[in-house]
Every structure is written in C-alpha cells, then in structure tokens.
Specification:
The complex is a heterodimer.
Chain A (H helix, E strand, L loop, with lengths): L8 E4 L5 E6 L11 E6 L6 E4 L13 E6 L2 E6 L8 E7 L7 E2 L3 E5 L1
Parallel strand pairs in A: 1-9
Antiparallel strand pairs in A: 2-6, 3-4, 3-7, 5-6, 7-8, 7-9
Chain B lengths: L2 E4 L3 E3 L5 E8 L8 E6 L5 E7 L6 E3 L7 E6 L4 E6 L8 E8 L7 E4 L3 E5 L2
Parallel strand pairs in B: 2-11
Antiparallel strand pairs in B: 1-3, 3-8, 4-5, 4-9, 5-6, 7-8, 9-10, 9-11
Classes of the chains: A mainly beta, B mainly beta.
Chain lengths: ~110, ~120
C-alpha cells in the first residue's frame, strides 16, 4: 500500500488560511470517509485533529476544518497562528490496510 | 485522563532484541485496540499493525512480519512491541496509539514514543 501524497511544505503568514491536500486513490480516500488528520510538533507525538473527513475532536480549535472531493482530502487551517507550525499527516482507511498515512506536510508560519 | 506511557529510549546492537512497553491508564484496557506506528528519523508515520486487546490477536502490516511481535499483559494494562534480530534500519521512534473512542480508523491518544537506536 503506497502512502497518500501530500505537499512537502506549505507556508503562510499569521492570520492567513492555508490548505493541505492529501491525494489517494479509489481504493482509499475516494472510497471511504475514514480520513483523519494528525498534527505533530517537533519531538512530540502526533495528535488527532480531524476524523471522518470533517469532524473535530473535543478541544480542537474550529480554525481546523476538513473536506474531501473525489480522491483528495484537504485540511484547512484558517487564521494561521504561530502555534500551528508543525507537521501534518493525513490517514485513510483502504481496501488493503486499515491505516494508510500520508507523506506529511511541514507547515511554516512566516 | 486517558494516557499511554511508553518505556524509555533504547540503544541496541545489530542482532539483539528490544521490547517496548506501552502502559495504559484512565480507561478499560480491553475495550480498545492498540495500534503501533513507526517513525524513522526525519521521516513520516508508518503503520506497523495492531493488537486486539480483547482477544490478544495481533495483525501485522506488510513489512512488519517475522521479526516484530505484539503482545499484551492485561493484568497491568500494558501492550508490548518486541523487535528481534535488530537491524540498523530499525532505528526509529515507535509509538503506541489507542483506537479512538469517537471514530473507527482513527487513533487517540498516542504514547509519547520510544526511540530505538540500533548501532554497532
């Protein structure tokens, strides 16, 4: 099972909105709504920020939102803040594996 | 609160074995499955597999069969990852992560990670 494709890096200024894409296939992202997003700060464990494409766990800022169209899921961070600087990983259920992670995206706040 | 606490960093020689522990607290251990995820230095997340904490049945992802063993001690709410015949390419941070209580095929929370370094 190949990893889902994410851009290596995305950057934005404070207050701006950025979008991170996560491209899969008709066997994973395109077939199921079990897409999750994880935030990982340097030296820390990942943290769940979006599940089932659009849902936020309790305690997660509403500046984080998710969507999906076809084989591509997206994470949108609005009102970008310095604390959002981290690595972000998408994950999807697939026909061949319950967990397929994306390649990861480094978000830089300019 | 729900918490997963992993054992400390390990330095091993090639060919040796290592056993990483993941102690759960704050919930009934056998209610949720436990996933294992590897992160090589500077690399992304890689799903290794999972263990059903109710039955003890492990499932290994491709590339993690043979040398990798998941096990449990439910009496102390602890999951284990053992890696045998270590290779230098096993150098990585290993995470345990509990199946989420709010959605299938998501994990939350994660342990803090255990760095395993394999070097001669």
């Amino acid at each position: 099972q190949s990893a889902l494709t994410q851009p290596a890096s995305v950057s934005g200024s404070p207050g701006q909105s950025i979008t991170i894409s996560c491209t899969g296939t008709t066997s994973d992202v395109g077939a199921y709504d079990f897409v999750s997003w994880y935030q990982q700060h340097p030296g820390k464990a990942p943290k769940l920020i979006i599940y089932k494409v659009t849902y936020r766990p309790s305690g997660i800022s509403n500046r984080f939102s998710g969507s999906k169209s076809g084989n591509t899921a997206s994470l949108i961070i609005s009102g970008l803040q310095a604390e959002d600087e981290a690595d972000y990983y998408c994950n999807s259920y697939s026909n061949t594996s319950p967990y397929v992670f994306g390649t990861g995206t480094k978000v830089t706040v300019l | 609160q729900v918490q997963l606490v992993q054992s400390g960093s390990e330095l091993k020689k090639p060919g040796a074995s290592v056993k990483v522990s993941c102690k759960a607290s704050g919930y009934t251990f056998t209610t949720y499955g436990m996933q294992w995820v590897r992160q090589a230095p500077g690399q992304g997340l890689e799903w290794m597999g999972w263990i059903n904490t109710n039955t003890g049945k492990p499932t290994y992802a491709q590339g993690f069969t043979g040398r990798f063993v998941f096990s449990l001690d439910t009496s102390v709410s602890t999951a284990y990852l053992q890696i045998n015949n270590l290779k230098t390419e096993d150098t990585a941070v290993y995470y345990c992560a509990r199946d989420s209580s709010i959605s299938s095929f998501s994990v939350d929370p994660w342990g803090q990670g255990t760095l395993v370094t394999v070097s001669s």
